[in-house]
From TrEMBL, chain A:
Any one GO BP annotation for this protein: DNA-templated transcription
Species classification: Eukaryota, Metazoa, Ecdysozoa, Arthropoda, Crustacea
Signal peptide: none
Protein name in UniProt: DNA-directed RNA polymerase III subunit RPC3
Chief location bin: nucleus
UniProtKB/TrEMBL annotation, chain B:
InterPro entries, per the entry: RNA_pol_Rpc34, RNA_pol_Rpc34-like, WH-like_DNA-bd_sf, WH_DNA-bd_sf
Domain of life: Eukaryota
Broad class of the protein's primary localization: nucleus
The UniProt record lists the keyword Transcription: yes
Annotated compartments: Nucleus
Protein name from the UniProt record: DNA-directed RNA polymerase III subunit RPC6
Family, per entry: Belongs to the eukaryotic RPC34/RPC39 RNA polymerase subunit family.
Function: DNA-dependent RNA polymerase catalyzes the transcription of DNA into RNA using the four ribonucleoside triphosphates as substrates. Specific peripheric component of RNA polymerase III which synthesizes small RNAs, such as 5S rRNA and tRNAs.
One GO BP: transcription by RNA polymerase III
Length: 522, 328
């Protein structure tokens, strides 16, 4: 094992790759994560593994869309490999993707996405074939799944941009290069004949073999899923601020905005009042209350201080857009407030942090004490504590009196929001990587014990199933000591908790990352 | 005495007035009578008399005599002299609380007392008295002790600097800046009182919001508007509950409500009141857009030694105690 120390984000990516693909692939990934680019030879010497292993590992990573390649600048005959950092991080979100798809579409689309995530890159026929197989095994019915249904599901997914074409390989100046498709071509599904696939399914084949569209390869579109996960957070916020019906209204408006602008921008394009009203009318079955008080709901939303909607114009009854930078700034501030409250344990620290953040000018300790209604001693200790943990920043302003003798200076505090957000973001990454590491460690250290426990449980089940006499069961139960059982219970309980940690922490990370992204957009 | 700028005149020991050229002047009035007439005028015009008024009233009296009499009155501390801010004219008016009510007070004490009186209810620091009266430290201490003994002045310790003492007249209430206002008692900040009031206000606003939610069928706008409470209303209710011994002003309640705003639980908005002019501040409870950061539900999010945690060293996730004790 190489002794490379990675930054929290890179450590998280390494842990994820290690968990899902094993140690060999993990080592190669670790090397590439710490160096931006690596050639085949670099990786071999850096990790100390055989060339064969390295090649296989790279093949896996490329096929899973985790590594990309390009020609080296100095010597075009050599290939540089580099990790696609964002995709590596998105390994964390696969479970959420499946849940999202199931929620929006249904189980057949869910299976398609699951297969595509497992394989990495695949042609449409391949995905449909494997999905049909999987569904057959699950249902165990005599009737075979009709692949045309799956084909339609596949088309639906592509139409909604959840899957996207992989870049094509073209020879440019005698050099093979990866080129992205045009925007309009990225989501077009080729015409396919389902008959050959249906035939293969009837024959219970395990591989699809040769097929017409084997050159047209698809992969999962992570950006689209991120937008979807982001929308969930936005809708929840709207529902919390006002009520459930507002959440539904906001959901409809988000859809309209997405249709209005395909690219990510700081401020979305505006949609008019009439458009929103039409959409609500079409969706009338959802909530009659919404149609009745439509104006009120819209007004309450855009007067809300979180900035979920802002009114940008008056034509057509009113133009509405969203400024993502503002919205996510409010969300990020909410997150930071929560962290300050929990980490420092008192409402007073929260008051001081928020008031320093909300003031236009920098605050000194006297002001803090007066506005936050805390005792002077508390104001001093808390402001220094917050500064030490990086939530407040200090600015020293010298009093311009005499140059002789000790110079008095004002100590002014302020909050540099991007800096604080970055600090908390790093903590979040560390949360995730720590949880993964601890889980892996626990399972390896207690491996024998857990295996013994698993066998023990199996035999116990068997005995119960065979209706063995009670004293035999009791005797067998005692073969594993109480202390052991307790230890196993404790380990399993912690493991269950640790499994949820990355998924929950991802929510915070999503908000903070989006804040930084929109904040730095022009 | 609005609009008059006080002129600090150093009060020196004034000798007995010079014997005037003629004690009986042209229209036959004696000095005493003129003095009495002047006092009458001073009573008549409590805002002050100027030279003009004196001239119109007693044109025949010699200017010298008038000046002498006025000086005498000033030395008896019955009258003080001011300069008008605009015209730079001199005015004389009756002193409202003559300090010479103290019997046997000598001039030093009077001077010091005058300074303390001027400082009003903000009080004046020992050092400042010394500079202004240019008395020595020992004399000053003696004077202050004597005055305190007579219960004419008192010392109040300021809340900003615990060791600093300011002096003011005995029967004056110290100003808010010294005692710190309603939230300080015995120079200590009353955090519990603030917390209690904080709680009460928040509960009130929550109740109002609950009631407002019942009107859901009227639309969200109605719900939102009926969940607002103005600071005056809150002040009224809290005062009626009689939790605090002193009177709560609207400003006090507003400072408490501002702390709730700073905790993110309450939102403030200003609307103009139909009846009186000026803005009315209204408050209502709000939910945060994101309930709580998910990372605070795990040990790492609130770990105090996060910065020292790593793959090597004493603090590693492998043997982290916080994970071991994570019970939730």
């Amino acid at each position: 094992m190489s002794s490379i120390v990675l930054s929290p984000f890179n450590q998280t990516c390494y842990q994820l790759i290690n968990k899902y693909f094993g140690e060999i692939v993990g080592e190669v990934a670790k090397f590439l994560l710490s160096r931006r680019y690596g050639t085949l030879f670099n990786i071999k010497t850096g990790t100390g593994m055989s060339l064969w292993d390295v090649k296989r590992a790279l093949a896996v990573l490329i096929h899973q869309n985790l590594v990309e390649f390009q020609a080296n600048e100095q010597n075009p005959n050599i290939v540089d490999y580099s990790i696609i950092y964002h995709n590596a991080y998105c390994l964390l979100r696969y479970a959420k993707y499946l849940y999202t798809i199931k929620r929006i579409f249904g189980s057949s689309e869910e299976v398609l996405i699951e297969i595509l995530l497992n394989i990495g890159q695949a042609s449409a026929s391949n995905v449909i074939f494997h999905s049909a197989n999987k569904l057959n095994k699950a249902i165990d019915d005599i009737k075979v799944i009709n692949p045309s249904d799956l084909y339609q599901s596949f088309q639906k997914l592509a139409a909604n941009n959840f899957i996207i074409r992989c870049p094509k390989i073209e020879i440019v100046e005698n050099m093979p290069k990866l080129l992205e498709f045009e925007e309009k071509d990225k989501f077009i599904v080729p015409q396919l004949e389902m008959e050959p696939i249906a035939k293969l399914l009837r024959e219970k084949a395990t591989q699809i073999g040769e097929h017409s569209d084997s050159e047209i390869i698809w992969r999962v579109n992570h950006q689209r899923f991120e937008v979807e996960l982001r929308n969930v957070i936005l809708v929840n916020a709207a529902a919390r601020r006002v009520d459930e019906t507002t959440g539904k209204l906001y959901h409809l408006i988000l859809k309209l905005w997405r249709e209005a602008n395909p690219t990510e921008a700081r401020v979305s394009n505006a949609v008019s009042y009439t458009l929103v009203k039409d959409a609500v009318r079409k969706n009338d079955g959802g909530s009659p209350m919404l149609m009745e008080h439509f104006d009120q709901y819209l007004r309450v939303l855009y007067e809300d201080s979180t900035g979920l909607i802002s009114r940008v114009g008056d034509s057509g009854g009113g133009q509405f857009a969203v400024n993502y930078a503002d919205v996510f700034e409010n969300f990020a501030c909410s997150i930071l407030d929560s962290v300050v409250l929990e980490r420092f344990g008192s409402k007073k620290a929260l008051r001081i942090f928020r008031l320093t953040r909300m003031q236009k000018f920098m605050t000194d300790q006297d002001q803090m004490q007066k506005l936050a209604m805390v005792s002077p001693k508390d104001a001093k200790t808390l402001s220094y504590k917050l500064m030490k943990e990086g939530f407040l920043q200090l600015h020293e302003q010298k009093k311009a009196t005499s140059n002789v003798g000790p110079v008095k200076s004002f100590n002014l505090f302020y909050v540099n929001l991007p800096e604080v957000v970055r600090g908390v973001l790093e903590t979040s990454y560390k949360c995730v990587s720590n949880a993964l590491e601890r889980q892996a460690h626990d399972l390896t250290v207690n491996k024998c014990l857990l295996e013994r426990h698993a066998d023990f449980e199996n035999i116990l089940e068997q005995l119960r199933g065979e209706d063995a006499p009670d004293n035999e069961i009791a005797e067998f139960s005692d073969s594993m000591t109480v202390a052991d059982k307790e230890l196993v219970a404790k380990v399993l309980k912690l493991c269950d908790r640790l499994k949820l940690v990355p998924i929950q922490a991802d929510e915070t990370i999503l908000i903070l990352e989006n804040y930084l992204k929109f904040h730095s957009m022009p | 005495m609005a609009g008059l700028a006080a002129v600090n005149i150093k009060k020196e020991k004034i000798d007995e007035p010079r014997p005037s050229v003629s004690t009986v002047n042209d229209d036959g009035r004696s000095e005493a009578e003129i003095e009495a007439r002047m006092l009458e005028l001073l009573h008549q015009f409590p805002k002050g008399i100027s030279n003009q008024i004196l001239d119109t009233d007693m044109p025949t009296v010699d200017k010298q005599i008038k000046v002498t009499i006025l000086n005498k009155l000033m030395s008896k501390e019955k009258v003080s002299m001011f300069k008008a801010a605009g015209t730079q004219e001199l005015f004389w008016c009756l002193k409202s609380h003559p300090t010479s009510r103290i019997k046997g007070a000598d001039n030093e004490e009077r001077v010091v007392l005058g300074l303390i009186e001027e400082a009003g209810n903000k009080g004046i620091w020992t050092k400042d008295i010394r500079i202004k009266s240019s008395l020595s430290q020992a004399t000053l201490n003696k004077v202050l002790k004597a005055l305190e003994g007579k219960k004419v002045i008192k010392s109040v310790s300021s809340v900003s600097a615990a060791k600093k003492k300011v002096y003011m007249l005995f029967n004056l209430q110290p100003d808010r800046s010294i005692t710190g206002g309603s939230w300080y008692s015995d120079n200590e900040f009353e955090s519990e009182l603030v917390d209690l009031l904080n709680h009460q206000c928040y509960r009130m606003l929550l109740q109002k919001a609950e009631v407002a939610k019942q009107k859901q069928n009227d639309g969200p706008f109605t719900v939102r508007n009926s969940s607002f409470l103005s600071s005056k209303e809150i002040c009224q209710v809290i005062s009626d509950l009689k939790i605090v011994k002193f009177n709560l002003t609207v400003e006090d309640i507003e400072t408490i409500l501002d702390t709730l705003v700073f905790e993110g639980k309450v939102e403030k908005s200003t609307t103009s009141d139909g009846n009186c002019d000026g803005q009315v501040k209204t408050y209502r409870t709000v939910e945060k857009p994101v309930s709580s950061a998910s990372i605070v539900r795990m040990p790492c999010g609130v770990c105090p030694v996060m910065k020292k945690c790593g793959n090597v060293g004493a603090i590693q996730p492998k043997d982290c105690n916080y994970y071991g004790e994570w019970d939730d």
